[in-house]
């Protein structure tokens, strides 16, 4: 049975949900859930598809959707299979199980049209695998803090278990500690909103035992990705501490790699911690010519 968040969405989430169309596509024994926003002033851009990170949902992009809409772009934000409100994938419990159900959903929602794929962390592995397997789908790929490059180490970060705790205050303390260890660099970035989003998302994570983030699966997939590939990483990302210089060479496996871009003062959840700087950079990359 699917877990549920403990209470109604917070006001920031409710505001965006009120302006979105909630869509469902087939996934395993249930549905994959998408949220679609159309801009007030549409311009001629490919739709932007947002894929979230592990133990996340579409709300990993909560602070970034308005900026994309103001630029005239249609936005589709997924709850990836096994996360948020989406059903488990038909088989498998890691990134390699998701490209086919995600592509099947995009085929229903976008037909054969290409989109700009912007993908965070675990979602970056999914997007890279999808772009390699279904090359016509991606007009461009923007990888945000994505692992699967043969760089991240299991020994870099220690997270604390929390599901056995019944005391809400103890659970909150653990979530705050885990956010500091992995997701956010600056203590002041661990706001009530960050804590609420993280807590709600982890409750809905049913994709246990994921291991591909510590392999080079994304780097190998990028060798077959024909569209332009951009990368945005936080300068203080805990996953790559003392390994930052290895990121760009690994990403250069993509034939049309357009460059490595850093956001200062940001950890792993870069688009949340430094949303304004991230949004400006992302829009500049999306405005570049999409193909060679």
Automatic annotation (TrEMBL):
Alphabetized UniProt keyword annotations: Hydrolase
GO annotation, cellular component aspect: membrane
Cited Gene3D superfamilies: alpha/beta hydrolase (3.40.50.1820)
GO molecular function, one term: hydrolase activity
Pfam family, one: Abhydrolase_6
Residue ranges occupied by any AB hydrolase-1 domain in the UniProt entry: 48-278
PANTHER family, per database record: HYDROLASE, PUTATIVE (AFU_ORTHOLOGUE AFUA_2G14860)-RELATED, MONOACYLGLYCEROL LIPASE
Protein name: 4,5-9,10-diseco-3-hydroxy-5,9, 17-trioxoandrosta-1(10),2-diene-4-oate hydrolase
């Amino acid at each position: 049975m699917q877990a549920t968040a403990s209470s109604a969405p917070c006001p920031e989430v409710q505001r965006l949900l009120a302006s979105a169309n909630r869509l469902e596509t087939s996934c395993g024994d249930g549905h994959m859930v998408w949220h679609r926003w159309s801009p007030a002033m549409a311009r001629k851009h490919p739709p932007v598809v947002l894929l979230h990170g592990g133990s996340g949902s579409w709300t990993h992009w909560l602070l970034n959707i308005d900026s994309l809409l103001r630029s005239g772009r249609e936005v589709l934000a997924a709850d990836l299979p096994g996360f948020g409100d989406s059903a488990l994938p038909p088989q498998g419990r890691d990134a390699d199980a998701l490209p086919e159900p995600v592509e099947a959903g995009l085929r229903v929602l976008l037909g054969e049209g290409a989109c700009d794929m912007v993908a965070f962390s675990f979602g970056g592995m999914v997007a890279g695998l999808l772009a390699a397997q279904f090359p016509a789908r991606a007009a461009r790929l923007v990888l945000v803090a994505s692992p699967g490059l043969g760089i991240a180490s299991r020994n870099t970060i220690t997270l604390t278990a929390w599901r056995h705790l019944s005391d809400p205050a103890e659970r909150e303390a653990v979530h705050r500690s885990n956010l500091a260890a992995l997701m956010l660099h600056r203590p002041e970035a661990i706001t009530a909103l960050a804590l609420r989003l993280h807590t709600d998302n982890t409750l809905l994570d049913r994709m246990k035992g994921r291991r591909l983030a510590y392999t080079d699966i994304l780097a190998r997939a990028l060798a077959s990705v024909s569209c332009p590939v951009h990368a945005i990483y936080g300068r203080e990302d805990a996953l790559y501490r003392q390994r930052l210089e290895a990121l760009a060479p690994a990403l250069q496996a993509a034939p049309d790699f357009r460059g490595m871009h850093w956001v200062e003062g940001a950890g792993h959840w870069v688009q949340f911690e430094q949303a304004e700087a991230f949004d400006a950079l992302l829009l500049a990359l999306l405005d570049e010519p999409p193909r060679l």
